[in-house]
Amino acid sequence: MKLLGNSYLLLCISLFGFCYAKVEDYLKGIEFERTFSPIEGKVIDVKIAIPEKDYNDIIEKSQLSAQEFGAIYHGNYPEELKYTVKVSVNITVDDQVYSYDKVKFKVDGNNARIFNKLGYNLNLNKKDQFFGRKNLRLRADYFDITHIRAKLAVDLINKWNIPTVQETYANLYINDKYFGFYMFLDDIKPGWIQDIYQLPEDEEVKTLYSCSKSSLFSFSPENARRACQNEKG
Questions:
Q1: What 3-state class would DSSP assign to 172?
Q2: What is the pLDDT of residues 135-153, one digit of tens each?
Q3: Which of 36, 124, 150, 218 sits between 20 and 30 A of 8, alpha carbons compared?
Q4: What distances in angstroms separate CA 120 from CA 20, 41, 104, 107, 213, one per listed residue?
Q5: How does DSSP assign 68-103, residue by residue?
Q6: CA-to-CA distance for 57 and 63, rounded, in angstroms?
Q7: Is 32 helix (H, G, I), strand (E, B) or coil?
Q8: Taking the alpha carbons of 87, 38, 163, 157 in that order, is the dihedral positive or negative?
Q9: Domain extents for the chain?
Q10: Which ranges in the chain belong to alpha helices (H)?
């Protein structure tokens, strides 16, 4: 019993110490360029303005029940229900607002569309960037009620100097309606690979694949030819 009590005490001391340390301190010493460092440990506000018709379409069409997804569409979200719309986005960091127009906006994921809380993708114009990135995600992280597991995993990989995505937290608003607390991260696209590995902008990236078929359970040559293609944009 005493041992158990001491274990709880050590856990509480560790958590107390972590809370009062600077969150960004444990990310020091990363060798590759981590452009999200200025927003580390912050909760930013992402406000999206979308035409009312497109907003209503998202509410009506974006989600499927598990029965529809499995029985009708056989685990593949139908192309006719996928769409991208142009929106305006304001991102507030502390007191500074970053504004972007004609941002490509779409619902994220395939299987995740059966959940109550959806994720979203933002693709900024070629001339625009947010802290060095133009492809951004608002991830619902539906199964992690702590909102910490994915963040710790990404930060650890960053700390090990393995190039990967960066994350922080965000409050999401669409047409002034609060949509919830999200993970805000960059997205691995061809442009991300060009930036991270310093490739020429006009060089085609042929090493990033998108495998869209939910039936793909193994990366055999046959399955890869059938279900995978070079990622675009």
A1: strand
A2: 999 998 888 888 889 888 9
A3: 150
A4: 32, 21, 10, 4, 20
A5: IIIIISTTS--GGG---EEEEEEEEETTEEEEEEEE
A6: 10
A7: coil
A8: negative
A9: 25-187
A10: 2-20, 52-61, 66-67, 149-159, 190-196, 221-227
Give the distance from CA 173 to its chain's centroid.
Answer: 16
Largest interatomic CA distance in the chain: 65
**How many Å apart are CA 133 and CA 187, to the nearest integer?**
8
The residues, any chain, with a CB within 8 Å of residue 13's CB and separated by 6 or more, are none
- CA angle, 89 then 167 then 103, to 5°: 20
What is the token pair recorded at 211? 């495998």
Beta pairing partners, 185: 137, 167
- Our measurement of the distance from residue 180's CA atom to the centroid of its chain's CA atoms, rounded to an integer in Å, reads 14
**Distance spanning both ends of the chain, measured CA to CA:** 58
Structure confidence at residue 231 as a pLDDT band (50, 70, 90): confident
Phi-psi map region of 141: left, alpha, beta (phi>0 left; psi -120 to 50 alpha): left
CA dist., res. 166 & res. 186, Å (int): 6
Q: What six digits make up the tokens of 200?
A: 């020429």
Helix (H) or strand (E) run with residue 177 in it: strand 177-186
| Whole-angstrom Cα Rg for the chain | 20
94-151 residue pLDDT tens = 999 999 999 999 888 666 666 778 889 999 998 899 998 999 999 988 888 888 898 8
**Token pair 């409050």: residue:** 171
84 vs 87: CA distance, rounded Å: 10
